[in-house]
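User: quick one, sequence for these tokens?
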């Protein structure tokens, strides 16, 4: 029997929080590729932040909505800086850990079920924008964000340009997506934890040019704040 898509991820987070510093989840791509994800990185503190993390924190202001907040690394730092932060995640286990780690305002919810508004910053780190699943989902989210943000608010997000790779399996996967009529950055995954698998779900890695175009199409402007040789980048959407 399959678990809910993100449930194995939550169980791995719980194991780490309870003391197993080698806790991991296994990510299965639908072409058979697997990758071990040790969850320690999700628990990093300010001293372990990447330059991308630090730039995202520096751009955040006012009332902040942290979407896909996980166990709260960014929410905790923003709180420490005196900002008002709401951390949301669809994993109930992640939300419980977030609360125990000291995030004051936490909700286990999808952004589309959120009743609050009036945010100055929407933050999506750890490539959390992937939750939109595909380009139409990205457009839907950017249109919906207008109901959450103040008139001068912004969205801060990071993603990955998957085209920047020399791995033949990744390139083959991208080509297969295109042949299927899909965008090359759509990924289909299952997460496994200690033999327990979740249902398949989709995530989106969007390249900077496409993000800029869809931002423009939905009445936003998009600035690429930083980009890295491996394809990671940080964007600010206003």
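Assistant:
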């Amino acid at each position: 029997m399959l678990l809910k898509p993100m449930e194995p991820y939550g169980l791995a987070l719980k194991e780490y929080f309870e003391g197993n510093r080698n806790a991991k989840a296994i990510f299965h791509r639908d072409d058979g590729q697997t990758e071990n994800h040790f969850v320690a990185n999700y628990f990093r503190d300010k001293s372990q932040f990447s330059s991308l993390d630090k730039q995202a924190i520096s751009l955040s202001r006012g009332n902040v909505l942290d979407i896909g907040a996980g166990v709260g690394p960014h929410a905790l730092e923003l709180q420490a800086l005196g900002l008002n932060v709401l951390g949301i995640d669809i994993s109930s286990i992640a939300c419980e850990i977030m609360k125990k780690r000291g995030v004051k305002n936490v909700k286990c919810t999808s952004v589309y079920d959120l009743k609050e508004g009036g945010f100055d910053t929407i933050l999506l780190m750890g490539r959390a924008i992937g939750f939109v699943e595909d380009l139409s989902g990205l457009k839907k989210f950017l249109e919906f964000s207008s109901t959450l943000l103040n008139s001068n608010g912004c969205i801060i997000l990071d993603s990955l340009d998957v085209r920047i790779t020399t791995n033949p399996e990744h390139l083959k996967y991208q080509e297969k997506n295109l042949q299927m009529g899909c965008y090359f950055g759509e990924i289909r995954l299952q997460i496994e934890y200690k033999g327990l698998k979740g249902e398949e779900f989709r995530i989106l890695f969007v390249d900077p040019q496409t993000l800029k175009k869809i931002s423009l199409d939905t009445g936003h402007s998009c600035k690429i704040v930083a980009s890295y040789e491996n394809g990671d980048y940080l964007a600010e959407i206003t």
